[in-house]
Amino acid sequence: MSSPGFAVISHLTAGRGQMGTSLSFHLFFAVLGVGLPLMMLTAEGMHLRTGDPVWRALARRWSKVFALLFAVGAASGTIISFELGLLWPRFMAFAGGIIGLPFSLEGAAFFIEAIFVGIYLYGWNRLSPRAHWLAGFPIALSAAASAFFIVTANAWMNVPRGFQLSHGRVTHVNVLAAMFNPAWATETTHMVLGAYLATTFGVAAVYAVGMLRGRRDAYHRKAITVSLAMAAIIAPLQLGVGDLLGRTVAQHQPATLAAIEGVSHTESGAGLNVGGIPLPGHATTVFNVKVPNLLSLLAYDRPNAPVRGLDTFPKVDRTPLAGWTRLSFIGMVGIGTGLVVLSLWYWLRRRRNGPAPEDRYTLLALAAAGPLAFLANELGWLVSELGRQPWVVYGVFRTASAITTASGLGATFAGFTILYLGLSLVTVWGVRRITTGTPDHGHAPALSVA
Amino acid sequence: MRLSDFIAIGLGLALTAYALLAGADFGAGILHLTFTGRPHQQGSLTRTIGPLWEANHVWLIFCITILFSAFPAAFAALGRVLLAPFTLVLMALVVRGVAFGVLSGAAGLERADRLLGRAFGAASVIAPLLFGASAAAVAQVSSAARTASAAPAGGTPLSVPWTGLFAGMVGLLAVALCAHLGAVFMTSRLERAGEMRLVDGFRRRGLQTGTALLGFSVLALLVAAWKAPSVWHRLTTAGLALVVIGLLATVASVISLARRRYSTARGATLLAGGALMWGWFIAQSPHLIGTRLTIDTAAATAPALTALAVAGGLVLIAVLPAFYLLYVLFARPSPEVTE
Question: A114 vs chain B: nearest CA distance in angstroms?
Fold first, then answer.
């Protein structure tokens, strides 16, 4: 619908671009919004137990960063709730009455979270230490609940259930069946664990950078220890849940499975492509090692089960971005595996030698793991979104049919992209200002973080 | 009454909560702009809304989710016609959130804080201005108003004159209401905290904004009679009682402020704001959009509505006590600097 003279990208691409930019921006803050409260609670709980002021200083510093990130996340989340209607009115007219329930429940969780964020952040001196700590629990719980509810809606887009279509009209709606579709459990768990994992490695990375710059004090050591202790529990779990989610995809989204695993032709006893990096624009892959029968075994529990190839699907039903989907998938799995290895290796070394490994290479690895863990989250979200194309609701509703008929998406996309870039810079500057300012307490020295 | 009517009433209540509570927070931003160069006043504003504004903002998300779950057709239609003003509103909201978040995070460079304060204030003006203009434009949609030109296949073209004179006037009315809410809330809070020196500045602002609110209310009505006859007709028939209540309450608020009765002023302002919102709703009912799309036509299927009603009820049972706790805990602005 955009005026042809200015149409550098198509109307649909502009809409998808804007939605994608908004979601990838929001995802970063959403992930920290889920993960940081858990870390604040842990640190504050350790302070209550041990009386060590370093724990309290950590909790306070993290809560200040959280306050800023929560403000950005709440605003960027509001943008997305509006954009569902502004960019995809036909999708929402179709889906609103089916998946409205989890969105409304998410509203409730967000209410609780916002209320207790106010109480927690501004209540350090108004509540007893114990009551203050307890006020953090509703934040951590409702943040995880928010992620849970939103991702059930995404799971529904991947595996739609709980309605029937007759003559293009939605009938026989069962909102619970829609919400608890076959993918809800694996997708939500994968997302929440992913958020915890990215946050723990993100926090560890910040303090690893601090140590690399010579600030080797109790404050930095404790922060890294608590982060990696949590990571060591979560990372292996995430690997297992990821495998379960792969099975869900195999069962309900065969075209998506073919795209993410790079299966072009149907194979029985399909091998797992390890590596197999596609070159966008080329049919071939590079660095591929094929492990015989492993894909069939992983996806269907039988070494000789057939796996449908991408070429068995009509061309209009194949994701047009199969190469990028595969690339995102490889990136996510590769980083995830690396994080598992890193956390196990850290604790193995620590147990054998006593003190924590603080050599340059360990710290460098930790410093790199933080941003990579966030990247893995973004890539996982890309796998879910690109892998489902050309559908917005898999097998039911095409993305191209969902886009608004209003004109001007090129302008709004450009506007939001510039705005997000600016806001990212301001946010980074704001976080640095908090973390490099004067310490909260005289008796907790060297509080600067990065 | 059908279930969809009850949900529409619930939506109206939630929207009113957003307009009054978040409206006061917008007002704090507007006042922040008018107190540029006066750190005491500005500080008391940011400290007061700091713990509250996020929770107040969630009413908007709550309204949006109710709207698209219970009335997906209305959400889709509004999304189509309000793309431009809502895009600008969203930009204002996110700028405001980031600016306030950074501003209250740590005291830093004076110049940067001044800039952030300006961004926070400007965005606090733009958001209610465009929300008000959009609401007025939606109210003006009638079954007769169709644009022939931009009729997409399968879509229902609506003419939504959000840049018109009536829309602009209602936008200014919304800004004045927010600023007045903010000023009146601050006077009663600061009075209870015993900060009498600061109260006077906010009282003056309250008198100014109250007068502006009254002026824009009368002007908006006059413009409606001229430019939006259908809205004028409905306001002076179905909505007449609420229009009168709203005007009287605004007058009462200004008089109470003049007499330094701050709690009374606060009650009167809330009443005026409530009357304004419900005057709009009553004038529109049983339609969600102008006189075009009815509650019944836009409603989702019965099972979806039932689930939503149950969920919405549970939400309020969980949320309202928490809100109470929040407001009680932060009833007085604290002199301490929050960290």
Answer: 5
Residue of chain B with shortest Cα separation from A57: B339
For residues A179 and A162, what is the distance between their CA atoms, to the nearest angstrom? 8
Closest residue of B to A117, CA-based? B51
Verify whether the Cβ–Cβ distance B79 to A404 is below 8 Å: yes
CA dist., res. B272 & res. B247, Å (int):
7
Give the integer Cα–Cα distance in Å for A126 and A144. 26
Helix (H) or strand (E) holding A267: strand A267-268
State the sign of the Cα–Cα–Cα–Cα dihedral B322, B323, B324, B326: positive
Is residue A24 within 8 A of residue A424, CB to CB? The reply is no
Report the C-alpha gap between A255 and A276 in whole angstroms: 18
| Contact (CB<8Å) B152/A405 | yes
pLDDT band at A436 (very low <50, low <70, confident <90, very high): low
CA torsion, points A412, A415, A419, A421, in degrees to nearest 10? 110
**Is the CB of A171 less than 8 angstroms away from the CB of B319?**
no
DSSP state of A173: -
Q: Does A416 contact B91 at a Cβ distance shorter than 8 Å? A: yes
Q: Residue B108 has what pLDDT?
A: 57
CA B7 to chain centre: 20
Tell me the pLDDT tens digit for each residue of A163-207. 888 887 888 888 888 899 898 989 999 999 999 999 999 999 999
Alpha-carbon gap, residue B58 to A111, rounded angstroms: 6
- Closest CB from A70, A90, A406 relative to B83: A406
- Residue spans of beta strands (DSSP E) within chain B: 287-289, 293-294
Ranges of residues in chain B with a pLDDT under 70 are: 105-109, 142-159, 332-339
Q: Which two tokens stand for residue B73?
A: 């057709």
Count of beta carbons in the 10 Å neighbourhood of residue B234: 23
Cross-chain Cβ contact A111/B322 below 8 Å: yes
Q: How far apart are the first and last CA of chain B?
A: 50
Residue A126 phi/psi, 5-degree rounding, is -100, -15
* Strand A267-268 versus strand A272-278 pairing type: unpaired
* Closest-CA residue to A26 (of A420, A431, A426, A435): A420
Q: Report d(CA B113, CA B100) in Å as an integer.
A: 10
